[in-house]
Amino acid sequence: MSGGKLKYFSLRHKLAVLSFISVALAVVIGGLITAVRISELLEQEMGNRALAIARTLAQMETIQNNVGRPGGEKAIQPVAEKTRLATGVDYIVIVDLQKIRYSHPVAERIGKPFEDEDIAPALNDGEYISHATGVMGPSVRAFTPVKTDEGTRQVGVVVVGVLTPTAPKLLRVIHPQIYPALAVGLLVGLLGSLFLANRIKGAMFGLEPEEISRLLEERNATFQAMGEGIIAIDRQERITLLNSEANRLLGVGQEAIGQPVRKVINKDFLSCVLKNGQPELNREVVINGTTVISNCVPIKVKGMVVGAVATLRDKTEVNRLAEELTGVKTFIEALRVQNHEYMNKLHTIAGLIQLGKSDQALDFIFQVTEEQEEITNFLTSRIREYSVAGLLLGKYSRAKELQINMRIDRQSRLLSLPPFLDASDLVVILGNLLENALEAVKDLEPSQKQIYFGIFDGSNELRIIVRDSGPGIPEELRERIFERGVSTKAEKGRGLGLYLVKVHLDRLGGTMEIKSGQKKGTEIEMRIPKNL
User: Fold this and answer.
1) Dihedral of CA 527/528/531/532: which sign?
2) 194: in domain
3) Of the four, 75, 118, 209, 264, which is 20 to 30 A from 166 by CA?
4) What is the DSSP letter of 188?
5) Straight-line distance from the first to the last Cα atom of the chain, in angstroms, rounded to the nearest whole number
6) pLDDT at position 152
7) Is 0.85 surpassed by the pTM of this model?
8) pLDDT, tens digit, 9 for 90 and up, residues 405-439
9) Is 305 exposed, middle or buried (0-12, 13-18, 19+ CB in 10 A)?
């Protein structure tokens, strides 16, 4: 019945009651611990004080000269009693090595043996503090040996004892100080419990636990149903959220939640967004052998960055980005260039025919056909990957339209690609390198527009060389030219092509060497191993 009534209490009331009970227990336990600690400190202080008195008595010549001698108690007892009354200790007992008392607060016990067992170490030249219950009650007492002949011979023991207060007596002594403190502590605990309950309720937007649980389940169901992978981290770079699609892409399970993101993903992923507070959109990342497109944004609460979240889209076929950058658009551009070029040539042929120059028209037709057939036959025979051959043919045609002399090394050869190298990767790399070379020389004088390209299929590696006669890479940009957004062009939105080249080359385990100088052009040589 009481349990049924309890569930109708609001979260605020439950928190207030629980907090107050916790504080009350803490205060009471703290009070008891304080009392015990005070008792321990008091006994320690009493023991040190007793030991100091015992040492003083053991150094007195009256004690040293009369312990163990017949009638010695007549000289020792007055000194011991006078010292006891002056220092306020409860008893001072001096015994010889046969444990016979030479002094005692109760005169009848003088001459009788000291029967407590804790004196044994003192009879063997030991000095210490002992807690024991003697004839006068529980006490802390100090044992110090009495020595003569300049400390070489022990003749007795000084025992100084102080009776320790019992627990009820101690509480009676300290209750005027401790009880008000306990009362103040309970009052502060009550007020703090009410304040804490209100703050927690406010922080939860006035929701009850059942409502929060339902919202959490709905949120988790929504995240798990999404087709994109979602991963979130907190300020300490620990993973706080991971849906099933992210589990699949990352190759981990729900046990990754709570782990540092760098331990789960061996990349600088989400950390930069967390540090600089700026989003990173449409970033291409290779995770667990799969290429994904990520959108990373910071999580801000009241203007402060408290975490970051990323969405991951599977991109096992990199053709999507290759087609956007250098694939379909490149081939369409090549067709446009060829269409424009052939229209000009048809106009030339038609003009020659109209002028009655049929022989010149035939020679022109044979020249054009031979040139086109020669480059086409060369590429199809030497470059067996047709997407790469088509790319080169398109770039060659575009270079002719721009009046650029593009020379393809006649020793170039590409017979086959290694299993791990997708043709679309090579299209991205070559397309961006050649497009940059075309951009570098298009504004020069026609006689200066030179581009060299070579691709060489070796037994262990694939070597690619692209050289242009452009103005070169400025010295201040050479170290950063492959960073995202860095470009020699001033236009906004540039600086993506070479970044993608670097990303693909790193994933393939390749190396790159750049030679560039002001007004000396640029040469980029890349080597891609055939065995990772």
Assistant:
1) positive
2) no
3) 118
4) H
5) 71
6) 82
7) no
8) 999 999 999 988 887 787 878 888 888 889 888 88
9) middle
**Interatomic CA distance for residues 444 and 516, integer angstroms:** 17
Distance CA 189, CA 195 (A): 10
> 261: Cβ–Cβ under 8 A, 6 or more apart, which residues?
231, 233, 237, 238, 239, 269, 270, 271
- 270 sits in the region (left: phi over 0; alpha: psi -120 to 50; else beta) called left
Dihedral angle computed from the Cα positions of residues 381, 385, 386 and 391, in that order, rounded to the nearest 10 degrees: -100
Q: Which of 168, 197, 225 is the last residue of a domain?
A: 168
Q: Do 408 and 388 form a contact (C-beta atoms < 8 A)?
A: no
Range with the largest mean pLDDT of 5-14, 36-45, 261-270, 451-460: 451-460
In the chain, the number of structural domains is 3
- How does residue 207 score in pLDDT terms, banded at 50, 70 and 90? low
β-strand partners of 495: none
Structural domain boundaries, residue 337: 320-529
Instruction: Look at the block and give the residue holding tokens 């010549």.
Output: 61
Q: Which two tokens stand for residue 486?
A: 């860095």
- Reading the block at residue 64, the tokens are 């040293």
Residue 53, domain CATH: 3.30.450.20
Q: Are strands 405-408 and 450-457 parallel, antiparallel or unpaired?
A: parallel
Amino acid identity of residue 40, one-letter, is E
User: Does residue 114 sit in helix, strand or coil?
Assistant: coil
Two structure tokens written together for 195: 């304040």
Selection from 305, 308, 316, 184 nearest residue 248 by Cα = 316
- Any idea what DSSP says for residue 21? H
Number of Cβ within a 10 Å radius of residue 493: 8
276-298, pLDDT tens digit by residue? 888 888 777 777 777 777 888 88
Q: Residue 364: phi, psi to the nearest 5?
A: -65, -40
CA 101 to chain centre: 72
- 324 and 301 share a domain? no
Positive or negative, the Cα torsion across 330, 333, 338, 341?
negative
